[in-house]
Amino acid sequence: MSIELIVLDVDGTMTDSRITYTENGDEVKAFNVKDGLGIASWRKLGKQVAIITGRSSNIVARRAKELHIEHFYQGVHNKKEVLEDLLEKLDLSMENVAAIGDDLNDLTMLKAAKISFVPRDASAYVDKIATVILSKKGGNGAVREMIEYLIKKEGLEEKYLKLWV
Question: In the chain, how many domains are there?
Fold first, then answer.
């Protein structure tokens, strides 16, 4: 069964875990452009993307919109439960899911997914249950590394490269 949906945590995977506040109280996060191109490529291959994050942020909502991520959930306490509801809507199973997370609140979701990924700098507790520990840190290309791993595993390299040629 192929992977049809990737599920992304945000803080510590799409970002480097840091949250910066300006003097005015605005929140600042940095996203990796290479991750964004990987996400766009995955979508162009006809695959789906979901963001399921524990925090709520206008910045993350903006990034999800920029990347045309339809399945966007923030302020989530139980990520596995939200994922199960999404799979029911999409008529998919956990066998079709790859997920990335970096901390304790991702554990149940990562355990449930067919393939689970963690950035190099994830919690040691999350490392123990991950299918793949990536070489990149969160916010530094970990999501892109995950996507390219899946593209190779799914035999989609030729199709992936043709997207941009």
Answer: 1
Does residue 8 sit in helix, strand or coil? strand
For 142-159, give one letter per residue: b (16+ CB within 10 A) or e: bbbbbbbbbbeebebeee
Taking the C-alpha atoms of residue 71 and residue 52, their distance in angstroms, rounded to an integer, is 8
Q: Which residue segment(s) compose the domain that 37 sits in?
A: 5-162
Query: What is the distance between the alpha carbons of residues 13 and 119, in angstroms, rounded to a whole number?
Result: 6
- Residue 53 is part of a domain; what is its CATH number? 3.40.50.1000
11-59 pLDDT, tens per residue? 999 999 998 999 998 889 999 999 999 999 999 999 999 999 999 999 9
Other C-beta atoms closer than 10 Å to the C-beta of 119 total 30
Q: At a CB cut-off of 8 Å and minimum separation 6, what does 49 contact?
A: 5, 6, 7, 8, 39, 42, 43, 67, 69, 70, 71
In this predicted model, what pLDDT tens digit does every residue of 53-82 receive, in sequence order? 999 999 999 999 999 999 999 999 999 999
